[in-house]
Write a structure and sequence with these properties.
Elements lengths: L2 H21 L1 E9 L3 E2 L4 E3 L10 E4 L2 E7 H5 L9 E3 L1 H4 L6 H26 L5 E12 L14 E5 L2 E2 L3 H8 L7 E8 L2 E8 L1 E3 L2 E6 L2 E10 L4 E3 L10 H11 L9 E4 L2 E2 L5 E2 L4 H11 L3 E5 L2 H9 L4 E5 L2 H9 L5
Parallel strand pairs: 4-16, 16-19, 19-20
Antiparallel strand pairs: 1-5, 1-6, 2-4, 3-15, 7-8, 7-14, 8-9, 8-10, 10-11, 12-13, 17-18
Length: 333
């Protein structure tokens, strides 16, 4: 064959291969940054309003999608700020991506209720909130508990001690050594059952026992006023902190003080702020949005955020009350 034809044939084959790699998905996922968005028009507190000023409370989410094979093989073609995540880290064996999204939506609904309850309580309003156990959101695939526990289970007793909150479960597990078995009483599909699981050592402390699960607060909540929160297709519990800040602002408090305040963090019924995932992408998205301040959970989340913040001001917080205090101490805008 003529050399020129060989070159053309090779080029055509390369185009076909590249097209196939770009249009077919691998088994892994990409976490891709989104820009922070104002939450005021997503939340409505009955009889209240958001004060009009140049600032506002912003939430930030992460777009999760299947990675294309070309993105899997060539990191430089991935969107700026994206991270490749193994498929099993997003959808464990036996769970589909659709089921994962449904679980994330349920997590969001619980987060909305808890955030509103925290804000109402801080404003001095009566809230009927009864903690009912530690809700399992996810189970690590490489721990013994993966064969016994499942997302949606609610642990109400561990090692013979009642469990009403996530902190109560941590305290109960803290009474045993890594490798020992622990008896759990839990609610599953409306029934109470008992399961025994073997603990493992914590990654950061080989003397501390853990089960290997991600948990949140299960509670019965009755709010004194109706709250509507609608973020469309966004899921997960990481918008709890901005939800609570916006509800509090709509109750007549000047939370943002003219600043554009972005926030992320899973808020607990006691007002504490728990770590969240995708903090790299969230920081990139907040930075692109032009926010003035980014409130993030203290600890590893804050350390990661600072690495990608540029000139964006990162403020680590451990609780809703601390977040309010920090914002009130900002200099006048």
């Amino acid at each position: 064959m003529h050399p020129r034809r060989l070159v053309l044939a090779g080029a055509a084959l390369l185009v076909v291969v590249l097209f196939a790699l770009w249009t077919t998905s691998s088994g892994d996922y990409l976490y891709v940054p989104n820009e922070a968005q104002p939450v005021a028009d997503k939340i409505e507190v009955a009889g209240e309003h958001d004060p009009a000023d140049a600032g506002g409370i912003y939430f930030i989410d992460v777009r999760v999608r299947k990675a294309r094979w070309l993105e899997q093989l060539l990191p430089f073609v991935r969107p700026d700020g994206a991270t490749l995540v193994p498929g099993q880290a997003v959808t464990p064996p036996g769970q589909t991506f659709t089921q994962w999204r449904m679980q994330a939506r349920m997590d969001m609904e619980r987060s909305e209720q808890i955030a509103a309850a925290v804000a109402f309580r801080e404003a001095g309003l009566d809230v009927d909130a009864t903690p009912r156990g530690a809700l399992i959101e996810a189970v690590a695939i490489d721990v013994p508990a993966a064969k016994t526990l499942q997302g949606g289970d609610v642990i109400v007793e561990a090692a013979g001690r009642p469990v009403l909150t996530p902190g109560g479960l941590v305290a109960a597990i803290g009474t045993i050594s890594p490798g020992e078995k622990v008896m759990l009483r839990l609610r599953r599909s409306g029934k109470t059952i008992e399961r025994t699981v073997r603990t493992v050592a914590a990654p950061d402390d080989d003397k501390r026992a853990i089960i290997g699960i991600q948990i949140s607060q299960d509670a019965r909540i009755r709010l004194p006023r109706k709250v509507n929160i609608d973020l469309g297709d966004v899921g997960g519990a990481s918008a709890g902190l901005p939800f609570a800040l916006e509800v509090y602002q709509q109750l007549g408090r000047d939370v943002d003080r003219g600043y554009r305040i972005a926030a992320t963090g899973e808020i607990q019924l006691d007002g504490s702020v728990a770590p969240v995932g995708g903090i790299k992408q969230k920081t990139v998205g907040v930075r692109r949005s032009g926010a003035d301040v980014f409130l993030v959970p203290a600890g590893e989340n804050a350390s990661t955020a600072r690495r990608y913040a540029g000139t964006l001001r990162i403020v680590p917080v451990e609780s809703f009350r601390q977040a309010l205090h920090v914002l009130q101490t900002l200099p006048p805008k």
